Model the fold of this input.
Amino acid sequence: MNALLTSSQRQLVRVISESGPLSRTEMANLLGLSKAAMSGIARDLIDLGVLHETETVYGQGRPSVRLDLHPECAFFVGISLLEDPAPMILCDLNGKIIARQSMPLSRDPHVIAEAITEGLPSLLEAHPEAKEKLSGIGVALSGFVDETQANCVQSTLLNWQDVPLARIIRERSGIETFIENDAKAVAVSEKLFGSAREIQSFSVVSLGDGIGCAHFIDGKLYRGNHGGAGEIAHCTIEPGGAPCRCGKRGCLDTVSSMKAIKEMSRAEGLECTSLSDIEYEASTGNAAAIRILHRAGSALGLAIANLIQINDPGLILITHVEGSFDGLFGTVVNQAIETNVLPRYAGQTPIRIKRVDGDVWARGAASIAAHNFLIGPNTN
Amino acid sequence: MNALLTSSQRQLVRVISESGPLSRTEMANLLGLSKAAMSGIARDLIDLGVLHETETVYGQGRPSVRLDLHPECAFFVGISLLEDPAPMILCDLNGKIIARQSMPLSRDPHVIAEAITEGLPSLLEAHPEAKEKLSGIGVALSGFVDETQANCVQSTLLNWQDVPLARIIRERSGIETFIENDAKAVAVSEKLFGSAREIQSFSVVSLGDGIGCAHFIDGKLYRGNHGGAGEIAHCTIEPGGAPCRCGKRGCLDTVSSMKAIKEMSRAEGLECTSLSDIEYEASTGNAAAIRILHRAGSALGLAIANLIQINDPGLILITHVEGSFDGLFGTVVNQAIETNVLPRYAGQTPIRIKRVDGDVWARGAASIAAHNFLIGPNTN
DNA sequence: GTTGATTTGTTCATTTTCTGAACTTAGTGT
DNA sequence: ACACTAAGTTCAGAAAATGAACAAATCAAC
Done:
């Protein structure tokens, strides 16, 4: 389907997916084409069902009609390999989840491909239009993925080394498949479906048992030279600090991840199983809880401040599943960011907090497929 | 001149400037064009004097002829406002310096524009071909420059605030002018003329009285949302450390800049005026000198390690003017990088040291003009 | 040597894509 | 009702890219 589009058509689709609904004249200017050329391209895309007319904007002269991507011109499946059972969702081009189910997690890529293929019919059952226009599968996993978004170079969690997962799934299911690291997938989903749509450069910091991070730079996901951009979790924050499972000492991961916070609490004899518990203890004046949250928050804030200093992003989006960011932890994080950023910049970089639901990873996975559908492999 | 090129021609020029000499067939594949189209575009550019044939590569079949940019198809002037007197150079598209002179530094942008305009005739005097093909002026300065490379948003050194320097010079001299931050200019010059030509993502760390840093990401200079990407000097490296002139505490700048190293030496009663002096003292066993170099080196190494973790660049290029990197300081920096980078990556990111001469800034400035000539303002 | 294989690069008729200019359409302001 | 404005369309002609056939320059093999 995407292959049938001409290069101008694909460029247009990309511009709209980045800038939102635009009038034909605006699009012509953005692409540097004449109104005449634009007219034809838009007509073709509307006939193909890719675009549709939305609101009419009244100004002086003839009103302009905004064109937007038709949300139901393509559907995507997203699977998260971060949970067991693995969630599997079906969504449209707007990221709206249409169907949801789960499949057993496995470490064998062939078993995964099999489970996905077997799961597809029931996922698509009630949605014949999606069945017809299913345009890609996306898979999110914890680990390193190469720049073709096809091979998992390494994953500790799944115990993988150079696994061509995308190809395996593609061959078994017959559907275009792309894989991506979890944090990077969330960044793409925020850019495509979420609150970072209009921002060209931003970073996502995902806070969970581990700490993930990914960057969008100049409108593109930046993966780094070895696919390792955003490995903020293993920045040294407390030189000479506690040993980390990575082999170094004092990594951010050893102080600020939910796992670390819980472990520190346990070590201090606190009966806490979640961030909320610790926050509660801190609010009642428990010194150990306060100390732990302070330490974790300062470390995370410092790391984010360093990120801001180094990359000057237009937004920091902190996503977290557990607890809330309104307590001591969040306050300390914000404070630490403020005090460690060049005063000239302090407060200039918006920090947005987003509490995410159980669909984040699967939706992120689907967004990878959507991204490849919209932008395509060739970025000419 | 550049405006006369068609969009395909400009694309081709960009590809060659990024990838070096290529055969017509290779270029056709890279641009996704047919050999037929390529043939015509290449012929036109050769006729225009922009490209020329270089070596012939023999393989099986008809040998291929590599085309490269004609180094003398355009000339550029570069001026560094970092020194007094300000160096002013004339160079070709390869970055080869053809003429060199200097002009008095001033804080008044109009005086600068005047000095540049007055200096041009004598700079171009012995080079009539350059006079004819002078395609741009570049200016490097210490401070923040906006993304149009036209306005200096802020410069402490020059005491400027929102100065439209490029426009002022352009209007006075009649020549296309662009300005850029010093570290970013060096990064561009390394990408265009230097040793980072074939690397898509890399960072330059420039070590002098202050510490500068700039990133190339996916083949493009990344300036950051407020033009502040690369402000590594004000990363907090020693939390709660010495106060910095920026208003925070423990910035990298307060420990690892040459200025800081010299000040710390003075404070310790060492009679040192240069890095070499301190290195010498350290080599003779002076405890204070060793301590200072250790502290400075560890801090810089840690900052670079953080940069590697966050951005995973394909190369770190450390440029420095003073002293050498073979002594204790360099050793400690390298060691600190190694120990603070994810073990999986240790040694994976090449660290290249480059001792630079007095022309760096001016050549960097010229490269900004060259970059705008090659890539153009519109990156469509 | 001569022949065949191989790959680069050119030519040219044809097709695709884009433009410029005139025109239609759908409003606003008076 | 009238001009005025800007969006979007139409269509002939210009520009750019393609495909296929071909010329050119080498290697490799007999």
Summary: The first strand of chain A starts at residue 22 and ends at 23. Chain A has three domains: 7-69, 75-189+360-375, 200-313+322-355.
